[in-house]
Amino acid sequence: MSKIRDKARTPAILAVALLPLLAAFRTGPRVEQKGLKPPSELALLMREMTAFTDSTRLRLERGDELLPYPAGFTAMHTATPTDGKLDIDRAAFDAFADHYLVQLKALYDAPAADRLSTFNATVQGCANCHTVACPGPLVRIKKLYVPLAPDLTK
Length: 154
What we know:
The chain has a domain at 41-142. The protein has five helices and no strands. The protein has helices at 2-24, 41-62, 90-109, 115-132, 138-142. Helix 2 (41-62) packs antiparallel against helix 4 and helix 3 packs antiparallel against helix 4 (115-132). It is globular.
């Protein structure tokens, strides 16, 4: 008889043990964590740029056409940074932003055979700026490069 009682108890014990875990996955309104600020305009734009770059990398690796030119990226010059300030001089930031935009245009102007290296130069523009200011995203940026095939003709 104790085996029957133990078999009946097991689901009840599991239910009680799993209840806190199930409560953690509840759906409903999320409670905002105190101390976290909403992302700035510049941070949101950089996230959009990252998503675009990642998508472009995948398209280039597959040999697909580029998406339409992202003209909205010029807003880098006017988007409000986190805490309303930049970690570098505004003139230096604008120079990095201009360089990125020139590289982005070069990507769209490049012949298909040169797009991978031009794309990597565009990603390098991101890395150059983030090396000087806001280095946190560098880990993510380094994953955006397209591996280039070695030149076997040498």
